[in-house]
Amino acid sequence: MFNDEFRKPDTNEVSYYPEDELNPQSSKPKKHGNKEKVLGLIALIAVVSVGSIGGYKLVTEKNAAADTAIVEQANETTPAQTEAAAAPDTAVTTAASGEAYHSMLELANKGSEMSVPDIVKKVKPSVVGISSEFVIDSGFSYLSGTSIGTGTGIVMSEDGYIITNAHVVVNSEYGTKITAKKVTVVLSDQSEHEAEIIGADTKTDLAVLKIDPKDVDLVPAEFGNSDELEEGELAVAIGNPLGFELYGSTTCGIISALNRTITTDNDSLSLIQTDAAINPGNSGGPLINSFGQVIGINSNKIVSSQVEGIGFAIPINEAKPIIDDLINKGYVTGRPLIGITGEDINQRTARYYDIPEGIMVRFIEPGSAADEAGVKLADIIVGIEGTAVKTMDELNSIKDEHSAGDTVTITVYRDGSELDLELTLGEATSN
After folding, report:
1. 90 falls in which pLDDT band (50, 70, 90)?
2. What is residue 73's predicted lDDT score, i.e. its pLDDT?
3. CA-CA distance, 323 to 406, in Å (whole number)?
4. Which of 163, 262, 310, 412 has its CA 20 to 30 A from that of 389?
C-alpha cells in the first residue's frame, strides 16, 4: 500500500477482490447438487493427495541425487588446483583470469636470481665502516679544531685494499681540501684497523685505502658489469647511515635511471639513479644487483623537503680505471694541466681598471705547460681554442675536453693587446 503522504484527500483504503466483480452471483447459495459435489470433492482431494505424495517422493530423490553429485564434485581436486594451493603466498592468483601478481621485489628481478636476504648474506661481510679524523686550522679559533666524519667502504681484495668516496677522507667544507689526518676502518667483525690513503680523486669522488688485515680473513666483494644494467631492475644498498650506530643497514629499491649527469663542486659526473635509500654515512658503500654483485659505489643524494628516494651511485665500470690509477700511480693519469693559479676578473672590476673580463694569472708552476709557452704573471686569459672564457671554471671545462700532450691555443691580454700562445698540455699528478 502507498504511504499516507501519497493518498489523495477524502479517499478511503478499500480491499479489492477481482472475483467479486467478475462473478457477482458467486456468493449466493446453490439450491441443488450439494451432496454430489461434496462426494466429488472428497474423491478429488484423495487423488490429488496420492499424486502429491508420489511427486514429493520423486522430487526428493532427484534432489538427493543432485546433492550427492555436488558433494562428490566438491571433494574432487585436480592436479592444477593442488599446485595452486601449494604455491607461495608471494604470488596471488585470481580465480577469474588465473594471472599471478607478484611483489615489487620479485618484479624487479630480471629472472630467478638471489633473494634480498641471500644478497645481504653474500655482500655484508665485504662492507666496512670508515672513520676519518680531520684537523682544521683556518686561522680563526671558532673554525679550528678536530672533526670526525664517518662513511662506508667496500673490500676490494684480500690484501687489504678498500674502496670508498673521496669526500669520506677529504673535507672540502671550508673552501679548501683537507685530507684526513687519521683514517680507521671498522670491519664486519667490529675489529678496527688504521688505514693508509693510497689515493683520492675529488673530481670523480673516488678514493682507495689500504689496511693490514693481519689475522683477519677479508672477504672481497664480487664486482658486476654496470653497462648491463636496465632501468627498473633490483638495487640493494648496504652502508652505515648517520654513523656506526646503524652499522650495516640494508635498503632496497630499483634502478630508477641510468647516465644521469650531476654536477657537484663544478665537476660533472654520469651516475646511476636509484630509489634505494642512501643517507649521509652510506657514502662509499656498494649498490648491488640481484646477483649479489657490486655495480655502483653510492655517492650522494638530493636532499630536500620536496623530494624523496633520489640517490646516486658511481657506475663500477667507470670507477675501475680510476681505482687502478689510484693504486698504481696515486693519481688519475692522462688529465691535462695548464699549470697556473688564476683569479676571476668580474665585470665590475674590469670596468674599474679598464681591463677585459677573464682570468688573471696569479701563479705559474715552474716547468709547466704555461711556463714553457711564455705565460706571464698578471696576464689575463680571455680565450682558449677560439672560445671566450671569463672564469676558471669555463677555462677548465674546455681544457678537460683534451688530454695530456694535446696542443691548444690560449689568448691572453697583456699590455693593452691580445696575444695568442700555443702550449702543450701537461699531465696532472695530483687530484
Report:
1. very low
2. 43
3. 24
4. 262
Does the 336-427 domain belong in CATH 3.40.1280.10? no
Residues in Cβ contact with 262 at an 8 Å cutoff, skipping those fewer than 6 apart: 268, 269, 271, 300, 312
- Residue 223 per-residue DSSP state: B
- If you count them, how many residues does the chain have? 431
Cell of 134: 680531520
Residue 31 is given by DSSP the state S
Task: Note the pTM of the prediction, 2 decimals.
Answer: 0.69
CA 213 vs CA 72, 137, 155, 219, 285: distances in Å? 70, 33, 11, 11, 19
Identify residue 347 by its one-letter amino acid code: Q
**Other CB atoms closer than 10 Å to residue 365's CB: what's the count?**
14
What Rg value do the Cα atoms of the chain yield, rounded? 43
Residues assigned a catalytic role: 167, 205, 283
Whole-angstrom CA distances from 212 to 121, 169, 218 are 24, 18, 10
- Residue 210: strand, helix, or coil: strand
The position carrying cell 702543450 is 424
Q: Which of the two residues, 292 and 140, has the higher pLDDT score?
A: 292
**278 three-class SS:** coil
Q: Which residues contact 338 (CB under 8 A, 6 or more apart)?
A: 368, 369, 370, 395, 399, 410, 423, 425, 426
Whether the CB-CB separation of 402 and 349 falls below 8 Å is answered with no
Number of other residues whose CB lies within 10 A of the CB of residue 233: 17
The answer to whether 398 and 386 are in contact (CB under 8 A) is: no
List CB contacts of 118: < 8 A, sequence separation 6 or more.
Answer: 292
**CATH class of the domain comprising 117-328:** mainly beta
Q: Which of 6-10, 60-64, 350-354 has the lowest mean pLDDT?
A: 6-10
The structural domains of the chain, with segments of one domain joined by +, span 1-75, 117-328, 336-427
For 293, 294, 323, the CA distances from 119, given in Å and listed in that order, are 9, 11, 24
The residue whose grid cell reads 649521509 is: 280
